[in-house]
Design a protein that fits this description.
- The chain has 115 residues and is mainly alpha-helical.
- The chain has one domain.
- Helices cover 59% and strands 0% of the residues.
- Helix 4 crosses helix 5 and helix 5 packs antiparallel against helix 6.
- It is globular and about 35 Å long.
- The two termini are 12 Å apart.
């Protein structure tokens, strides 16, 4: 179910993509409903750019994003596996290895259509 981005979400998105104005998808004209998929699919130029951007986040921001992912509020949909590797690496470094593994498991369950 889509969610409206909170002020905390918007602050993270602006940190990751300071060149963007607003939270709208240029292709559809609708607001983004998550942070990581739009960063991957609409903002970052390639995987290296995605990796560079997500490494800007602090431990507190990663904890916040991890909690959103684990609660199902932050989507992992449409993310390529190599970018999931970068995400789980950051989660392991800033939050915990166990949380990174939970996120990885959720990603694989969603890719397989279980979730």
């Amino acid at each position: 179910m889509p969610r409206d981005l909170t002020p905390a979400d918007i602050a993270i998105l602006q940190k990751l993509a300071p060149e963007r104005e607003g939270i709208g998808c240029p292709g559809s004209g609708h607001d983004f409903h998550s942070i990581l998929p739009p960063l991957s699919n609409h903002i970052a130029v390639d995987t290296a750019d995605f990796r560079r951007r997500i490494r800007l986040l602090s431990a507190d921001e990663w904890k916040y994003l991890t909690d959103l992912i684990l609660s199902g509020e932050e989507s992992l949909g449409c993310l390529p596996e190599e970018e999931m590797d970068d995400i789980t690496e950051c989660i392991a470094r800033h939050v915990s290895g166990a949380s990174a593994q939970q996120v990885r498991n959720l990603y694989y369950l969603s890719v397989c259509g279980v979730l």
